[in-house]
Hints:
Chain A is mainly alpha-helical.
Amino acid sequence: MWRQVLLIAVTIAALAPLSFMLLTSLKTPQDYAEHPLGLPSSPTLSNYVSALTEVPTLRWAVNSLAVTVVAVLVSSTIAALAAYAVAFGRFRGRSIVLSSAIGFIMVPPVVLLLPMFVVMVNLHLVNRLWSVMLFYSCLLVPFAMFFLVNFFQSVPRELIEASVMDGAGPLRTLRSVVLPLSRPALVTIAVVNAVWAWNELLVALVFLQDESQRTLMAGLTLLQGRYVSNQPLVLSVAVLSIVPVAVFYLFTQRSFVRGLTAGMGK
Amino acid sequence: MWPYLFVLPAVVAMGFGFVFPLVSVVRNSLYAGTFYQIQYVGLGNFRALVDDNVFVHSLTNNLRLLLTVPVMTVLALLIAVVLHDGVRAWRVHRSAVFLPYILPAAGIGLAFGALLQFNGALNQALRVLHLGFLAQDWLGSPRLAIWSVGGVVVWQQLGFGVVVFLAALLSLPNEVVEAARVDGASWWQIQTQVQIPQLRSTIEFFVVTEAITVLSWVFTYVYVVTGGGPANSSSVMEFYIWRNGFAQGSVGLANAAAVVVLVLAAVLIVVYLRLRRAPENPGGVL
């Protein structure tokens, strides 16, 4: 009995702040000022209309989407090639490459940020989406590579050998044998990295300062100061930033669990 | 020959994105000045850090946040063993508990920023429940603000622990539990003496991961929920680096603080890699 109660309490605690957000976004500023708690006295979508007309929410969302797609595609491609070499190839420095990748997974981005900013200034990429795309792509390689190496090692060696016997080069073996067998792993890595890139704030905040060039997360933080007295509007944009992730999660929950438990060995 | 070509892009990416900035930040921490004009000062930046109350306070706040790690571990273990018992609708509960973990901290932080205002929804709810004496100025009190940030961290990270522990529990053999039950062990005895001890390596993984998180990945929470305030009282090292490096132009201090974060993270990363290689945790690169 107490177990059921505990779980219900935990579920309510997990969902309450989200429902607060949603309910607030449906209130007028006056309604919210008088009743921050509880249901809207007359639900309105006017905040969402403002969010899409007065605030460059859509522009920011498109920027976020572009950054996410490029970072995931580039990092996955680089990682898949390297993981194939590490799993099936023989070369000097193989174990150094793999163990540095594992070590880099946990390196906090804040440590890398100052030198990378100088690089972006010198490359004239500050305030351009390319800066964030480039850095995210690099940051995502280690985990993607580590994850794919583990998965590739479960591909039967005989299949690789058979493909090579048929005269296929490494690139063709990777594309026509290993990758099709690794679809669940590729989906997992794409899902986990996509959510990471969509959610990232610190790098985007520093590299993209122009209002129109911001990602959704970096844009959100601008609103906080600008609409201090209009929480419902701010939270409606916040809801819009969360909904894509929540919907994505509903469809890919299994991949998440697989991706996040991958780091822990057994 | 081909393996070299295949790893080349990854080596370039990691060299550009990790090795180069790591080497630079260590070297730059020995210089003062702006991004464009620099002067060698040796360990001067580090001495200035130690003398800077804001830095010491930021570091202390990171250490305070370490207290969220045991809280999350115990709570997550409890929730995971209960879920594992196959309580009704456990999948629904698991999904709900895990949901916060994947949502953007910036969006979540805005909601908590509003929720925790003195006249906000949390205090209102406490008053409605006749618990008004618990109402606090969660974000406005210099003493409380960092703990409010810690609360948001727990709220968002807990689901990660639950999912990781639950996955580990599901992989345990059932026979041991059956045997214990036949021997007349109670539910608590089974959980605390049979199940949880078998999760040791998973618990270690979670503790180290979360320790790294609260020491060096909490910028978003602080920036969005409290803005480091009131009067820097909830600043953390990352926030200090950002403020000195990008808002105030004290790049030398920012680089030195980044080296401190790096050293702390590196210690934990080494611990983490050691744990992975521990004999109870075989499986090559894992």
